[in-house]
Design goal:
about 350 residues; alpha/beta; Rossmann fold; two-stranded antiparallel sheet; 14 helices
């Protein structure tokens, strides 16, 4: 764990929640600070409050924008397109409304997939890319998310809205935590080892007690996951990040998306910096916000923002992916080739 910063929280810019109606739908976002822009994109079922421990610190010398994706948080939850491409469009639209043309994009979980898609669809906007426990590296994902995508799950999720269900879940989690601290639970069964992020997952589940939030969650999930795993992956277009400063951050105890995906991303994107947070789960920026802020600020300070070059973009697309430029040992590269082959499969 990083040492605590004694200046943390002192004199940080205030974080405001603001709204814009775009294409008829009200979208909420948190915004703070002044300077070069950072766009923070949260994961599925989550909202912009997930970044609350890091927004203020990053806003000391940057403009930080953390939207609630459509269907999430305080944004409206219409019957709409909840695909990764549509979310990327939404990020572009919000930036246009705010008058921002250049950003460092930071995406967590589903937001990592959205960040990658944003880079692909709107490369002129992107100066740097940070992927945090990102979805879309390969098909692997926690079996619970696979199960949640199958028919019938919306009916089961309605139980979350029944009186007493959420307090029961939270109470059970607290009781297990107390028993864990007292040493009365076998180590292998301790909540921190079975589901590292149980507190954050309960926080997200709490937001799904609303029927509209449940519907938006299911629509979003089915756009990216089925019973076999993630259906949208980024490996075939990862080579287009060649000119972008790129940072990959993961927790080695991630039970949602395996940390192995960080190493796969590093193999496919050789210039990427890969940082693993020991003991952290799916939310490394919440497990150790001080370390995350220090890491991100250092990355921003030592890298030059990319300027989009349309001729170079065309060259990369003409040349295509270069398998011989990938890095890693034989086992890792074999995993990459298997994942690429799975991407090309129609089954």
């Amino acid at each position: 764990m990083a040492e605590s910063d004694p200046t943390r929280g002192k004199g940080v810019p205030p974080v405001r929640i603001e709204y814009h109606t775009i294409h008829g739908h009200r979208r909420a976002y948190r915004i703070a600070g002044e300077g070069p822009a950072i766009l923070l994109i949260h994961g599925i079922g989550d909202n912009s409050s997930t970044w609350e421990e890091v927004i203020g610190e990053l806003a000391r010398d940057h403009t930080v924008i953390a939207p609630d994706l459509l269907g999430h948080g305080l944004s409206e939850k219409p019957k709409a397109d909840y695909s990764v491409a549509a979310f990327a469009n939404g990020m572009r639209d919000l930036l246009v409304v705010l008058g921002i043309t250049k950003v460092t994009v930071v995406g967590h979980s589903l937001g990592g997939g959205v960040a990658m898609q944003f880079c692909y669809q709107f490369p002129r906007f992107v100066q740097r890319l940070v992927l945090v426990a990102a979805g879309g590296v390969t098909h692997d994902v926690n079996p619970v998310l696979r199960l949640a995508s199958v028919p019938g799950m919306p009916t089961a999720m309605r139980a979350l809205g029944l009186p007493g269900v959420l307090p029961l879940l939270r109470g059970t989690a607290r009781a297990l935590d107390r028993a864990d601290e007292a040493g009365s639970i076998p180590e292998r069964l301790a909540p921190r080892n079975v589901i590292t992020d149980h507190r954050d997952l309960l926080r997200i589940i709490g937001d799904l007690s609303d029927a509209r939030a449940q519907s938006a969650f299911i629509r979003t999930l089915r756009a990216v996951v089925d019973w076999r795993g993630q259906t949208i992956t980024m490996l075939d277009r990862a080579y287009l990040t060649e000119p972008l400063p790129l940072l990959v951050v993961w927790g080695d105890k991630d039970t949602v998306i395996p940390v192995h995906h960080a190493h796969l991303a590093g193999a496919v994107i050789p210039h990427a910096e890969v940082e693993i947070f020991a003991g952290a789960g799916h939310f490394p920026f919440r497990d150790d916000p001080d370390r995350f802020v220090t890491l991100l600020r250092g990355f921003l300070a030592r890298t030059e923002p990319n300027e989009f070059d349309p001729l170079n973009w065309r060259r990369m697309m003409v040349d295509g992916q270069r398998l011989d430029e990938m890095v890693g040992d034989d086992a890792l590269l074999e995993d990459v080739f298997v994942a690429l082959e799975e991407e090309r499969s129609v089954s």
